[in-house]
Amino acid sequence: MNFSDMLGYADIGQLSRIASVYRCECNGHSKNDLIQSILSTLSRNDVFEAQINGMNVEELRFLNSLMFETRDSFSLEELIARVQQSKFGETEPPVTQAEQQEPPVKPKRSRKKSEPQPVKEVTPRDIIARFKHQGWLFNGFSGPNRYLFQVPHDLRTRFRDTLKRKYAAQLQYTDEPHMYRDEQQLMSGDIRQTLHYIHHNDVQLAADGSMYKRFSMQLLDSFAVREELPAKGEWRFGYGRHFHHYPNRMSLLFDYCRSMRYFEDNQQTLVLTTAGQERMAGAPGNETELLYKLWLRLYKLPIPNLIALSQWINGLAEQWVTLSSLRPVLMPLIKPYYYDDANKILEHRLIGMMVHLGLLRIGDHQEHGTVIRMTKAGRAVMAGISLENNDKMFLL
Questions:
Q1: What are the boundaries of the region Disordered (predicted)?
Q2: Strands across the sheet containing 369-374
Q3: Distance from the CA of 15 to the CA of which of 122, 285, 343, 395 falls in 20 to 30 A?
């Protein structure tokens, strides 16, 4: 439902709170007057933008987690979890032992004046209540004793458009670089190369389930995109089943082949399945979409707001844009994951993998350094447009 529809279902108490936030001047006892005044006030871009500009970084992260969801409803528990994920550990330093000691005894009156008032911690429920009072969340019943919250459809669009203008104003767009890398269709080619190699070689596995180094090196040498095997002792976890053994792109490729059941283990040896033999004959038309969905599923655990981040790259990199200007816009939205800081996640887990998937081009500009731009196929995939039977149309 849209904002106006949800206002119609809201009680006069919630309407009064929303009107108070936006300082609407109307008859507070008339539901119709409240609705009309709220709609009139919120239709003004300056009012809407002022509310978003007044949000702190945690509230922006929470808002971002809702904007690109295809789902209509969220439980209170889900919203609380999203607010908690928006806190990246920016907490106050712990109280020291000296600070915990009682102050010297003073006259009662002077002690009251010198004691600082405790600062009330903002809880997830406080932030959810604030969004409700602004009319950005509405709740109702669904099933016995269960609340579900909704974000109005038209407000989601306004959130995205408003934030896009705000972010785009901070970016530096350029002309086409003198050289760039475009990996469209290369992943599909290397999937076929992997299956061909397994079919014609006795690929044996070590006790941990990985290929022996000799096979891994031969396979990497045959790929269109060169990668190095992870160094010994390098931490590798969280981004898929094969991430511990193989480099980023190869790991996703193997996870995809496993998920599609193109090969299986047979007494510590990789053996092609019937599905794998069929894949050798030709790739499905929607393989880029399948790879993209698998990447989202695997990387969403370490990067909970992966969908929002990838959609922002999609929306902000319609033209060539410098990475140096994009970095300060997106990094506040990225939560570090163990040894991966926000910058490494942006460059390697997001941009690097989107390039490997053929969603993004990356280039080297003579004046502005690294620049990126979405491919036509990438924009189609992220808009939910099927590429099946239309591959050539999007290879531009």
A1: 88-122
A2: 179-181, 360-365, 369-374, 321-322
A3: 122
Q: What is the dihedral of CA 164, 50, 335, 380, to 10 degrees?
A: -20
Give the rounded distance of the alpha carbon of 147 from its chain centre. Answer: 26
Q: Where are the beta strands (DSSP E) in the chain?
A: 73-75, 138-141, 147-150, 179-181, 263-265, 270-272, 321-322, 360-365, 369-374
> What's the pTM?
0.87
User: With 0-12 CB in 10 A as exposed, 13-18 as middle and 19+ as buried, what is 358?
Assistant: buried
Write down the residue that tokens 């393989």 correspond to.
287
**Between vectors from CA 338 to CA 333 and to CA 344, what angle results, nearest 5°?**
55
Contacts of 39 (CB under 8 A, 6+ apart): 3, 4, 7
Total Cβ atoms within 10 A of residue 365? 18
Distances (CA, A) of 79 to 7, 17, 115, 147, 194: 21, 21, 36, 11, 42
The pLDDT tens digits for 9-39 are 898 999 999 999 999 988 888 999 999 999 9
Structure tokens at 43: 């239709």
> If DSSP codes are grouped into helix, strand and coil, which group holds residue 41?
helix
Position 98 pLDDT exceeds 50? no
**What CA–CA distance (Å, rounded) separates 301 from 223?**
28
* DSSP state at residue 332: G
Place of tokens 């406080």: 126
What 8-state DSSP symbol labels residue 283?
Answer: -
DSSP state of 139: E
Three-class SS of residue 380? Answer: helix
- Report residue 297 as tokens: 């599923």
| 146-161 exposure pattern, b = at least 16 Cβ within 10 A, e = fewer | eebbbbbeebbebbbe
- Residues 292-346 pLDDT 10s: 999 999 999 999 999 999 999 999 999 999 999 999 999 999 999 999 999 999 9
HSE of 335 in the Cβ direction (CA atoms, 13 Å)?
A: 24
Any residues with CB less than 8 A from the CB of 359 and at least 6 apart, and which? 288, 292, 314, 374, 375, 377, 378, 381, 382
